[in-house]
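ENTRY TYPE: protein
WANTED: fold as C-alpha cells:
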Amino acid sequence: MKKFLSLIILSSIFLSACSQSKSPVSPTPTPVPREYVLTETDKPKITLTPRSDGHELTLKITGIKPIFKKIEYELVYTASDSGLEIEKGVSGTAESKDITNGGFERKILLGTESCTSGCKYKYDAGVNGGTLNLTLNTQNDQVAALTMPFTLTLIKSKGFTITWKQ
C-alpha cells in the first residue's frame, strides 16, 4: 500500500512539473467606435405611442438611411413598487434585416410577461416618463447616439414624435 501511495505522489509531482509554463496573456483592448456625426437628413423620425391602457408603448422609427446597419434602443423609466421608486428599462436591437422600407416597429411592454402556461402579465405601476436612448451603427462601424426624454402623460394624450428641425 505504501508503494502504491508513494507512486501516486511521485507521479503527480512529476506530471505537474512537466506542464508548460504559460506566459501571462495581456488583454486586448476593445476598440472605441468612431463617432458618426448625424446630419439633418440622416436623423430618423421617432414615434412612441402608448396602448390605450398605457401598459405598452409602440416604438416606431422611420426614415432610417441605408448607411445604418443596426439600431440599438433602450427605454429607461421609473416605476413604483410597494412605495419605492425603481428604475427599469427595456432594450433591443434592430439589425439591417429587421429594417424594411427604412423603418421598424417594436412593442415595448412596461412590465413583465410570463408565457410558460398561458401568458401572465405584471404591469409596472406609477410610470410617468423616462428616457429613450438610440445608438445607430453605420456600415463602417461608426456610432451615432441620440437621447430623448419623454413624459408618459404627454404621450398618452398626444403621442410622442420627434421630428428633427433643420
Remarks:
- The two ends are 89 Å apart (CA to CA).
- The chain has two helices and eleven strands.
- Residues 34-162 form a domain with the Immunoglobulin-like fold (CATH 2.60.40.2150).
- The first strand starts at residue 34 and ends at 35.
